[in-house]
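Q: I'm a student working through a structural biology exercise. My instructor gave each of us a protein and asked us to get a predicted structure, then write a short paragraph describing it. Mine is Sigma factor regulator C-terminal domain-containing protein. I'm not confident about reading structure output yet, so if you can add a plain explanation after the tokens, that would really help. Here is the sequence I was given:
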Amino acid sequence: MVSDWDEGLENKIMKNYRFKFTARIIKVITAIFLLYAFYMMGVNIIADSMKWDRKHLYNISLMLDWKFPNVKTPMDPPVSAMDGLWTQRMEVPLYEQVGKEDYSTGSINMKKGLLPGSSQLQYEWETDTSNDYFGFYLPENPNSGKKYSPHESDSAWTTLEKVHEGTVAELAFSTTEFMKPIELQKTLENYDIQVLWMPLYTGEMKEFKAGYGSSGNDMQLTGVYGLSSGREHDKDYMSQSQMLLDSRHMGDLQDAMLDSMKNMLEKESERYYDSFLGLDHLQERYDYLKKEGFAVYGAVVTGPVKELLKLKEIEGIHGVQVGSMEYWNWDAY
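A: Happy to help. First, here is the predicted structure for Sigma factor regulator C-terminal domain-containing protein. I'll explain a few features afterward.
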């Protein structure tokens, strides 16, 4: 009898212990979950109040304006997420303008962390080549001043001639001389097209080393910066505005670009604008543009194919490349 009683009591005690132990574990897990939930709530409240997603989107948009011809982002930030290690993630859709409308061309997966090496921009393009595939030929050697021969080819013009007139297209070309942006813009405004981007000479090979390709009698720089639509924002990035690339706004566009470069240099670390955004030699480029002024040597334009063909009559245009094409939308606006 005593043995039976002892065994039953032991089982009862063990059962009670297991129940209390399980309840204690559940309480600990619940407490940890609630603490993590409150922690993440605080993280997201701070991130939202600091407008980090809007700041990053704005700076990514600036980088695209300068380094990727005819690639743009939406004005409103997409949904972003912040994890417990204060790493923010955001997928940014990318568009290109062909004619009067924008078309999806890819996306950027942004990862922005606090620790070194934890931030990156990963590009995903809808075609095999990224939208920086346009190359522009320098008119002359930056160091010696030796003139390069024009890159003559009729293949782009031939392509446009074969396309139905109810088509709009994207076109890039170089010029045989450095030009003031307003000078090239006014020349192109004689045609029913829209100018989207102009490659800028920012002191490459003269003020700093830059990547390039050459066949001996020409030179194409890599990582070229360009003049695009001006971009401005309010204090907390809640609203922003853009100006068209046209002759009326040309002076304001150049001032806006210099102001944006200056703000980036003063407010952000080199790790942010160089390693994260990919804005290499930003200080040298800013100093050169501030001192020497703006000089362009080509453009990216869009418009009806038959109107683009008329650009062939402009003296000094060469290295012509055809980009994306779409059905007629020129009367959309």
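A: Here are two points you could use in your paragraph. DSSP finds eight helices and 13 strands in the chain. The first strand starts at residue 80 and ends at 82. It's a good idea to check both against the output above yourself.
Q: Great, thank you!
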